[in-house]
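Q: what sequence does this backbone want?
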């Protein structure tokens, strides 16, 4: 079985199709990543709000408790020590958590900006590739049209010439096949003018 002949145009068309599919796949993957990052950012924002709403009342209650215990300092000295210890343990954790959340939020903002930049670059590349493919297909179709015209012109002239020669040969053969008497011209009989 002979191997199909691959010319440059077929190879270029195959490469263009593969490139288009690869760009499309990259775009889909980047869009999926962007959606996942957005969902994660929203989830972290909600968790931060939940943490804030649950911790802030504890801090306010602790402040109120400290204010009320100052009035009865003699009986509440031990309680005040415990409350200060609790506050001393919780405050750095809250600050560390807040700092971590700020860093996470900044990181997510930076990643979102990078994703937007990447998406913009990808869309620009897709647009350029689409324009390039359009130009390639236009050139291909123009070349096919010119080649078809050339083939028609190249084939029709020799066919017409061969057809003319065959008609001439046929006429000669037909005239040679006729009997000799029918080939001679008939003369009018003598004396008849």
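A:
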């Amino acid at each position: 079985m002979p191997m199909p002949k691959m010319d440059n145009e077929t190879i270029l068309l195959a490469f263009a199709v593969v490139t288009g599919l690869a760009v499309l796949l990259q775009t889909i993957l980047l869009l999926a990543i962007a959606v996942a990052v957005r969902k994660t950012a929203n989830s972290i924002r909600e968790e931060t709000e939940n943490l804030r709403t649950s911790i802030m009342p504890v801090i306010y209650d602790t402040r109120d408790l400290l204010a009320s215990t100052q009035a009865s300092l003699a009986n509440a000295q031990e309680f005040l020590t415990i409350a200060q210890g609790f506050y001393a343990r919780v405050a750095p954790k809250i600050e560390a958590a807040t700092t971590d959340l700020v860093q996470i939020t900044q990181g997510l903002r930076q990643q979102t900006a990078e994703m937007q930049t990447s998406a913009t670059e990808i869309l620009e590349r897709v647009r350029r590739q689409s324009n390039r493919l359009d130009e390639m297909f236009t050139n291909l179709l123009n070349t096919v049209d010119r080649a078809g015209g050339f083939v028609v012109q190249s084939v029709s002239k020799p066919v017409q010439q061969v057809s003319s020669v065959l008609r001439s040969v046929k006429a000669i053969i037909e005239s040679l096949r006729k009997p000799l008497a029918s080939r001679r011209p008939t003369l009018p009989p003598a004396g008849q003018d």
